[in-house]
Structures are given as structure tokens and as C-alpha cells.
Please model this.
Amino acid sequence: RWYKVRKQFSKENRTHYPWIYINTEGEVRLMDGRHRLIAMMLFKGMEFAPVQVEPSMVDQVKAYFGYDF
Model:
């Protein structure tokens, strides 16, 4: 996995965004993309990462992180 992720970042300069969701307890969880998330921090030096969220969960995710926009 690391080879593929690093290749995408270094040669292709692209990747799919990680997916997050809200579980039954109302907590935000990473569904898919933990390697990509770590790679964004390590290889790109990013402090914040773009993620994908199901449209029906966008407001819940924003509220969870305290975003009001």
C-alpha cells in the first residue's frame, strides 16, 4: 500500500481523498484511506487533509468538528 500511495503523490501528484463517516454513537470515523491520510502528512507536509463525506452526513461532520459555515 505504501508504495502505491507514495507513487501517486510523488509521480502523479494525485490521490483519492479518504472517506469519513458518523458511526451509531455519533463519532466521526475514518472508513477508508488511513494510508493516504498519513501520506498527506508525511510526504506533503499537510496539516489539514481534504476528505470525502456522504452528502447526508455533511452537516453532522461539520457540527462534530465545530465548523459553522
User: Anything to note?
Assistant: The longest helix spans residues 2-12. The chain has a mean pLDDT of 81. Residues 6 and 39 are 7 Å apart (CA to CA).
